[in-house]
Amino acid sequence: xxxxxxxxxxxxxxxxxxxxxxxxxxxxxxxxxxxxxxxxxxxxxxxxxxxxxxxxxxxxxxxxxxxxxxxxxxxxxxxxxxxxxxxxxxxxxxxxxxxxxxxxxxxxxxxxxxxxxxxxxxxxxxxxxxxxxxxxxxxxxxxxxxxxxxxxxxxxxxxxxxxxxxxxxxxxxxxxxxxxxxxxxxxxxxxxxxxxxxxxxxxxxxxxxxxxxxxxxxxxxxxxxxxxxxxxxxxxxxxxxxxxxxxxxxxxxxxxxxxxxxxxxxxxxxxxxxxxxxxxxxxxxxxxxxxxxxxxxxxxxxxxxxxxxxxx
Length: 312
Known about the structure:
It is a single chain. The protein folds into two domains: 3-90, no CATH class; 98-310, Alpha Horseshoe (Serine Threonine Protein Phosphatase 5, Tetratricopeptide repeat), CATH 1.25.40.920. Helix 4 packs antiparallel against helix 5 (173-189) and helix 6 packs antiparallel against helix 7 (220-231). It has a six-stranded antiparallel β-sheet with strand order 5-4-1-2-3-6, with no helix packed on it. It is built from eleven helices and six strands. It is of the alpha+beta class. The chain starts with a strand and ends with a helix.
């Protein structure tokens, strides 16, 4: 978004340097489609100003980044000043920590904001491996939790971000894993055609993760392969036996993994072993929350309760 804003000084003093609050007088987006109601009429922004002698001075600024959820203006560039003898420097608000925002991902606004920050970082530095894979992870979450009409786009963007990460650091597991995760969710959510399209690449990426680091994220590659074998039709390589094998192996890294336990229970039910499945679900429901994956744990515990109710 690129906008032109006209601010008027609300306060002034003789002290220099000084922080002044500027009130938005009017603004204009160069892209009319971006002219959403993200900038309220009473928006103020702090600037570090020196040498201001009058409260009637005005600044014309270009805004290249807006945080819609908090209506905060960042990356403001002063392109014109009518304040006589004024020396002006923007005091930008610090960028929020995207890791902290993502930790609160159950609030979709926080997840979206984290994704926006990582996206900006990748755009500024196309070799930023950490931001690329974290962007893929954020899009995976949003692709599973955003309103239905937005999910496919998030997953496709997650695939693109993960491909970028895998290309930057092909010998690290993060890009490969989140590429498989985004493709897997897209395949599960949007029909058989998507599943057939991605099934080979999903499996190959997960096998790559196993080769690079089988313990990555508490056995996540084995967990995802267990899901792959469960979801793919037998005609195309699916196998409940192999699903159980991989899921039990993933549990050797974290016996309390809510995802592994839930997927194993589903596999056991499909194998007509409800008593074992019930024991696995009991384990899941009683397991402590993992602080790093608490959002996912809570969801799997709720699903386990519902699945338990279907068992006879």
